[in-house]
Design brief:
single chain, UDP-N-acetylmuramoyl-L-alanine:D-glutamate ligase, 19 helices, Rossmann fold, eleven-stranded mixed sheet, elongated, 505 residues, eight-stranded mixed sheet, alpha/beta
Length: 505
Amino acid sequence: MSRLQRITSDTGPRPLHDAQASRKVEALAATGLAPHTLMQRAGLAVARLAAAVAPHARHIWIAAGPGNNGGDGFEAAHHLQRAGWQVRVTALGDATRRPADAAASLARAQAAGVTIESSLPAGLTCDIAIDALLGLGRMRSEGAIADALRLFNGHGGPRLAVDLPSGLDADHGHGIGEIAARASDTLSLLTLKPGLFTAQGRDTAGAVWFDDLGCSNIAGHVPPHAWLGGADAALQVRVPRCQARHKGSFGDVLVVGGAPAMTGAALLAGRAALAAGAGRVYVSAIDKAAPGLDLLWPELMFRPGFWREPSAALASGTVVCGCGGGDAIREALPTLLTRAARLVLDADALNAIAADSALQAVLTARTGRGQASVLTPHPLEAARLAGAASAAMVQADRLRYAEQLATRFGCVVLLKGSGSVIAAPQQPTLINASGNARLASAGTGDVLAGWLGGLWAAAQAQCVVPEPQRVAAAAAWLHGKAAEGGDERGPLTASRLLEGLMRAD
């Protein structure tokens, strides 16, 4: 039996299949079924979701493309018309080249009394609009398809995309052609696609729903391209604290950053590390004039130049480096890259490494010494590390760039942005499911770096010893989760985010 499910940040780990793998799943599923069965199931699933998201609607417009995605639309029209809705379908493309399944569903829709037209209406007066134009199809959204998408996007009511918003790349989450559909809801069929959850995908897909069309056993035979991460990552890292413990039982974090005029970044990272569970947090601010006390968080211990000392905190602790570091962070990097047991590299530390091949070599050598590293770049920092021309190049293929950087440096890469990507050498790539645009404000990245360091230190000290990729995934999920539930029309300040992390923890 097929099952309709809403995919949220709490859903848990889900395999993500790219376009090629999804087509393989579809071909395998069709092999064991009677002709037209998959499309009939898909159309019924679309009709059911349309009725669920717009229960009081009576008028529906469906834009149907020339391929099987259009066939799903015809099949949905058949079911909705028979259920008493008034359905109007605009069928685009060459009817003589329509696939057999789609042609059969078109005939079923016509037999049910659905109005089928070949030209776009001047305007929409429907209660719900359905995009069944391209789906996984590689046709670019141009000409009549683009005009249909503009009409779809301009509809003020619910907008439902079938399988994938038309004009969105299933693998990478960027647009193809002139325009992409901006749906309020998307029903992904048979498989979940990576592009729905990263880059532009979350903006275009809206709420994501999934129906396996009764073929869940088939998808398990095709390796996924990536995994959608969820609360499970946090549960693996956050474990109950034993009673007979003291502050030294939960690890040390050393935050190195805070150049002149940027001390706040180091303070945010230090506060986040404490809030995440580290037993002791030292802040080694680069600015010599930085205050020696955080009045709001007096628990933080300030140690200027602490990283220069032959301290056990480096050999056994967790270092968060780069938050507000400026150019001055370069002085600390050779020592930290060589001596830190666990190292989170953020912001200016990444920029310094990107500009220095010697530092890149030291970073790469850490793996051979059993030292673990997590890089937390935003797209521009990732572009600098990868030698790419622009952040736009990274955004166009986020998974590939994150995976390449992880392999090149032998570390975990948490590529920030909508649908953060967490890659590690020889491990399945993860896409974080939580968060929203409220995180797009100054300092939230510093909070993430510090939170990651604190989680890592506490877990290691309690002998949980999670893989660094799991720690990064847990940090990203908790960080994003703390931003959910508020008004997404405005930003969330880093200090308020930290308060949310503490409440959600």
